[in-house]
């Protein structure tokens, strides 16, 4: 018995479609997908609402979007704003704009030029963020590089290499209010190689720890190497 071919879906203008299994989904304009979706490729230009979960090998969002369920893909690219009510899982993620999640964001490689805001945890093998990173829970990354642009926070950060850098020049919002300043606020940072600027933390633990300008650290625990900038404040440092 011959296998049925999987159909494509195209929406132009204003339209909607039911959930199901598709090969390729393309939307242009204002589109709504009602129900759970499985597809190989999703390309959305304009506004897309997903009223269910979605699993796709490759996803591209250009504009604004929302998903009420799990968003799971191999490669996810976002140019605009996307709001997800559950977890986001991926192999690679590239954000130019803002990704918001009520759940956790979990994947291998993430590059964010803009903002990543989530209520849950974040887990990456490699992450580069140029902008804002706001994590309600734990942030774990094998390699994390964060260039601060606005307020950033997490409960705890763990990883192998953790680098946090401040921009050389201040933004207008940095002068207006401390709450909008480009700064990372976190309870605990723990890793192998840690280099920080513009960070406020209660505890920093690492093998090699470098506390740079603009840092306010309660306690540093290090194994091999420690240095601190004269433009930083450290309450207590101890070699373990």
Q: In terms of topology, how is this protein built?
A:
Elements: E1 9-51, E2 54-67, E3 71-84, E4 88-101, E5 105-118, E6 122-135, E7 138-148, E8 152-165, H1 172-176, E9 184-196, E10 199-211, E11 216-228, E12 233-239
Parallel strand pairs: 1-2, 2-3, 3-4, 4-5, 5-6, 6-7, 7-8, 8-9, 9-10, 10-11, 11-12
* Distance from first to last alpha carbon: 68 Å
Please trace the helix and strand order, writing H or E for each element. Answer: EEEEEEEEHEEEE
How many beta-strand segments?
12
Low-confidence stretches: none
Molecular shape:
elongated
Q: Widest sheet: strand order?
A: 1-2-3-4-5-6-7-8-9-10-11-12
- β-strand percent reads over 45%
Largest sheet: 12 strands, parallel
- Average pLDDT confidence is 93
Walkthrough of the structure:
The protein has one helix at 172-176; strands at 9-51, 54-67, 71-84, 88-101, 105-118, 122-135, 138-148, 152-165, 184-196, 199-211, 216-228, 233-239. By secondary structure, the chain is mainly beta. The longest helix has 5 residues, at 172-176. The N and C termini lie far apart (68 Å). The chain is elongated and about 65 Å long. It is built from one helix and twelve strands, in the order E-E-E-E-E-E-E-E-H-E-E-E-E. Strand 8, helix 1 and strand 9 form a beta-alpha-beta unit. The protein has a twelve-stranded parallel sheet with strand order 1-2-3-4-5-6-7-8-9-10-11-12, with no helix packed on it.
């Amino acid at each position: 018995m011959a296998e049925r071919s999987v159909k494509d879906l195209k929406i132009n203008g204003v339209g909607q479609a039911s959930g199901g299994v598709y090969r390729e989904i393309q939307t242009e304009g204002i589109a709504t997908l009602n129900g759970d979706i499985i597809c190989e490729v999703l390309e959305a230009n304009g506004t897309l609402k997903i009223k269910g979960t979605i699993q796709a090998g490759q996803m591209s969002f250009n504009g604004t979007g929302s998903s009420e369920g799990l968003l799971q893909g191999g490669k996810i690219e976002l140019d605009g704003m996307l709001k997800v009510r559950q977890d986001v899982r991926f192999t690679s993620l590239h954000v130019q704009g803002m990704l918001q999640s009520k759940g956790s964001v979990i994947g291998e490689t993430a590059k964010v030029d803009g903002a990543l805001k989530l209520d849950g945890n974040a887990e990456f093998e490699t992450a580069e963020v140029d902008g804002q990173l706001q994590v309600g829970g734990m942030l774990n990354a094998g390699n994390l590089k964060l260039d601060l642009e606005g307020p950033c926070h997490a409960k705890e950060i763990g990883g192998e290499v953790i680098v946090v850098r401040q921009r050389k020049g201040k933004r207008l919002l940095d002068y207006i209010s401390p709450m909008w300043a480009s700064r990372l606020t976190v309870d605990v940072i723990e890793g192998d190689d840690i280099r920080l600027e513009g960070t406020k933390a209660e505890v920093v633990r690492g093998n090699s720890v470098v506390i740079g300008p603009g840092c306010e650290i309660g306690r540093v625990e290090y194994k091999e190497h420690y240095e601190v900038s004269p433009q930083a404040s450290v309450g207590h440092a101890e070699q373990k």
